[in-house]
Amino acid sequence: MNFIAMDFETANFQASSACSLAIALINNNQIIDTFYTLINPQQPFNRKNIAIHHISPKDVEDAPTFAQIWPHIAPLFDLNHLITAHNAAFDNRVLKATLTASNIKTPTYNCIDTLRTSRRFYPDLPNHKLNTVSQALNIDLKQHHNALFDTVACAEILLKTQAEYGWEQIQPLTKIVS
Q: Gene3D superfamilies, alphabetically (predicted)?
């Protein structure tokens, strides 16, 4: 299975306030590379967000803006690649809002949400939060709300679900995002 996992953290409650991003590249069912960066959202931080992910304004003051990062990752976001995220509606919204705020055209890509797949394939869990699903599948989520660790856990959730249920069962849950 080949796909790309992603996770954003935001500075505040605005979708356009991405302050960190992680991406994992999966090829032949193996995580072959990861990318993590802080992002200067050029927006104020909310203390509630800081309490969740522990990223502060000082941490990102010298970080690149999303517009500076995008040219390096843009080739991953097209119809030839499958993108996954846990609660993909959030990450897709952050990507779109951040691109729009940077006056960059939003790409069209295939996406699958591991929140949705876990609800379908593991309905007996008490909830389907990333940390709950990770624990149920014996995935080591080192630090929840750290974009890199969340991304790796998301990738491992999809890999374990595919190994257990097969791509034919999962594939109908993909959708095109634009």
A: Ribonuclease H-like superfamily/Ribonuclease H
Cβ-based neighbour number of residue 138 at 10 Å: 8
Identify the three-state secondary structure at position 132.
Answer: helix
- E strand map for 11-155: 18-27, 30-38, 82-85, 109-113
Q: Which residue has the tokens 């990738």?
A: 155
What is the tally of structural domains in the chain? 1
- pTM to 2 decimal places: 0.95
- Cα 21 to Cα 54: distance, rounded to the nearest angstrom: 14
CATH of the domain at 157: 3.30.420.10
Range of the domain at 87: 3-177
pLDDT in tens, 70-114: 999 999 999 899 999 999 999 999 999 999 999 999 999 999 999
Q: What is the DSSP string of 121-176?
A: H-TTSS---HHHHHHHTT----STT-HHHHHHHHHHHHHHHHHHH-HHHHGGG-EE
